Amino acid sequence: MRNILTGIKPTGMPHLGNYLGAIRPALTMAEEKNVEARFFIADYHSLNTVRDAELLRSYIYEVAAAWLACGLNPNKVLLYKQSDVPEIFEMTTILMAFTAKGLMNRAHAYKATVDLNRSKGLDDDHGINMGVFTYPVLMAADILLFDTDYVPVGKDQVQHIEMAQDIAGVLNRNYEEELLVIPKSRIDEELMSVPGLDGRKMSKGYNNHIPLFAPEKELQKTVMKIVTNSQGVEEPKNPGECNIFALFRLFASETEERALAKRYRKGGMGWGEAKQNLFALLNSKIAPMRARYDELIRNTEGIDAILTEGAMRARRIAANTIRRLRRAIGVG
Ligand code: ADP
Ligand code: TRP
User: Fold this and answer.
1) Is the beta carbon of 66 within 6 A of some atom in ligand 2?
2) Would you say 20 and 69 are in contact if contact means Cβ atoms under 8 Å apart?
3) I need a surface site. Which of 44, 49, 172, 281 has the fewest CB within 10 A?
């Protein structure tokens, strides 16, 4: 059996990038033989940035409903909320003692904030809380507590997995080899960076995202905002240099992709029509999932029941690892 695990931070409704880069590949992996899959909502990771209780509560439901609407079967796959599993936080405390501060100083996300502060003439630590600084330790705890073999994530998360490997290695060398399973990241090269409306990586942070389950009209309006060049309708166009095409091909069959590429090269199709094509394709793929999503969101008690059951199962696994660790380090 191989254990796979991944988490999504509830910081807003998941977008196409999250779906293609995280949710869909994780669900595909969960279908593989001899795989035990654990997916969770990383709500304490969100607390660093989401400071509105009502908003956080609704984001948690949105992420849970998104997993379920995208096809997660809670009878097969473990789905839980990070904050429901207190063992994760005991694990974090244990790992803290084995995590070099210098390792945290090198985290990309933290370094980017320091650089931004410097560029504005602010103190290095301006606006950085300890939750942000120790983010990779909590994430290592999420992973290592469940003896995870593979973590399906986008490219931006690879450094965090490497840090979890480092931290696990320090414990293993100090106590016993194989005390903790060393996790590996699994990224799909092609899907590792889904482009957003402006061609940069799709991200809530850049506000260039297409929400996965926005109502149909809103989806259409958002697709219409995709940035294009100023080529006229008749001009032949290069599919390789187009944000619309880049998104289209991620959802299209090979035949659909080839057909659209041909129309691009031939000319006679304007950006408005290309966007309309993309919208129709997206909507046809998303509509059945959106219907399930809307239904789940209307009945959050159903989600609560799934998360409560998930937490119970997760805690049973977690308790075993904690017992093993407590014994190994000498507190148990
Ligand atoms: P955001 O950048 O919008 O805040 P997150 O950082 O919460 O998104 O990402 C959640 C998951 O989705 C991660 O596994 C991340 O790698 C993946 N992901 C996010 N944006 C993209 C993207 N544009 N392409 C591929 N994967 C993505
Ligand atoms: N840091 C991840 C992100 O921003 C979310 C996350 C938290 C995670 N804990 C995890 C992902 C453990 C994989 C495994 O996307």
Assistant:
1) no
2) no
3) 49
pLDDT in tens, 121-130: 999 999 999 9
Distance, in Å, from the CA atom of 29 to the CA atom of 36, rounded to the nearest integer, reads 9
Distances (CA, A) of 221 to 47, 122, 224: 31, 38, 5
Q: Tokens representing 319?
A: 């308790």
Q: Rounded to two decimals, what is the model's pTM?
A: 0.93
21 vs 221 pLDDT, higher one: 221
C-alpha 227 – ligand 2 centre gap (Å): 30
Is the CB of 15 inside a 6 Å radius of any atom of ligand 2? no
